[in-house]
């Protein structure tokens, strides 16, 4: 009987405040969709870091005869064979180095023509103007500074460059976008909480006579509050369900089909369905607990039971 009463009161409350209930559902859906999207963006950045950092190289560019007049690091002239052997030997002796590959001037010129063949500068370059280099794959890409400090300023070395620095700028941008999404989500969450509190108070005010009678006949505080808390929880659950549908549909149509980004952007290792599905229970749990707790604390003060 009690369960039937609570369920009937939930239906009455939702129908009486249909407009505000709809607003609660929409605001909860949007805020939790942004919340889930932010979590997936964080996973995406972590996935991309693991994918790309594993592929980055540290490059040691060697001096050529044209660098002597234009670069202070090459003031002593082009790199000698003995210097190249010593650099290679030192690299192989470093425990953080996984693999070392050598790129000759001819290979560097060929790669430059492949990448920048349409550039006006490409037609004026000759192979002897290109720099020899060692491309080093590290066991831990974070330890670039160890290589840089060991070889920067050494005779025959023009510069030491780390491709990780280029990726760091990209990841900083992605993290900034993610923080922006979290900020919007927080604002939407506040709006949703305010709507939930107002909806519960309006519902309680419209049924103040019934609640007064229930207090007089000795009904417990929780028994009086239960229909209002359940109303908020149901509205939140509907909004959470819509947020989950939005995430699943968004993942399906942007990455797998529709925009088909997984095939158009093959350089990006997108998060899989397992990451999306893992977020859905958290979103649903939040969609129930957040409105229920907001209603509980609002009613404690308003009903004074």
Automatic annotation (TrEMBL):
GO terms for biological process: cell division. Keywords: Cell cycle, Cell division, Cell membrane, Membrane, Transmembrane, Transmembrane helix. It comes from Streptomyces yokosukanensis. It holds the Pfam family FtsX_ECD. GO terms for cellular component: plasma membrane. Residues 184-303 form the ABC3 transporter permease C-terminal domain. PANTHER family: CELL DIVISION PROTEIN FTSX (PTHR47755:SF1). It is a multi-pass membrane protein. This is Cell division protein FtsX. It is found in: Cell membrane. Forms a membrane-associated complex with FtsE. Coiled coil: none annotated. Its main location: membrane. InterPro entries: ABC3_permease_C, FtsX, FtsX_actino, FtsX_ECD. Residues 56-160 form the FtsX extracellular domain. Part of the ABC transporter FtsEX involved in cellular division. The chain crosses the membrane at residues 21-41, 180-201, 222-255, 275-299. Belongs to the ABC-4 integral membrane protein family. FtsX subfamily.
């Amino acid at each position: 009987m009690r369960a039937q009463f609570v369920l009937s009161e939930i239906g009455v409350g939702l129908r009486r405040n249909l407009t505000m209930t709809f607003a609660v559902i929409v605001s909860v859906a949007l805020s939790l969709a942004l919340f889930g999207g932010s979590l997936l963006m964080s996973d995406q950045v972590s996935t991309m870091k693991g994918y790309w950092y594993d592929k980055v190289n540290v490059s040691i560019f060697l001096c050529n005869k044209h660098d002597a007049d234009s670069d202070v690091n090459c003031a002593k002239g082009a790199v000698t064979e003995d210097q190249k052997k010593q650099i290679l030997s030192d690299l192989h002796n470093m425990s953080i180095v996984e693999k070392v590959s050598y790129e000759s001037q001819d290979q560097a010129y060929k790669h430059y023509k492949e990448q920048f063949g349409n550039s006006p500068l490409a037609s004026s370059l000759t192979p002897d103007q290109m720099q020899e280099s060692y491309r080093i794959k590290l066991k831990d890409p974070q330890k670039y500074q160890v290589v840089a400090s060991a070889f920067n300023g050494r005779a025959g070395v023009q510069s030491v460059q780390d491709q990780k620095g280029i990726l760091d700028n990209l990841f900083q941008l992605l993290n900034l976008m993610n923080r922006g999404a979290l900020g919007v989500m927080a604002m939407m969450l506040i709006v949703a909480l305010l709507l939930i509190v107002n909806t519960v108070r309006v519902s309680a005010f419209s049924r103040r006579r019934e609640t007064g009678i229930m207090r007089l006949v000795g009904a417990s505080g929780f028994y009086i509050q239960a229909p209002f808390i359940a109303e908020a929880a149901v509205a939140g659950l509907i909004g959470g369900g819509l947020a989950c549908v939005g995430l699943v549909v968004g993942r399906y149509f942007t990455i797998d089909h529709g925009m088909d980004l997984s095939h158009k952007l093959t350089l990006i290792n997108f998060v899989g369905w397992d990451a999306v599905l893992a977020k859905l229970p958290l979103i649903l749990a939040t969609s129930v607990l957040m409105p229920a707790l907001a209603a509980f604390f609002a009613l404690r003060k308003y009903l004074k039971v």
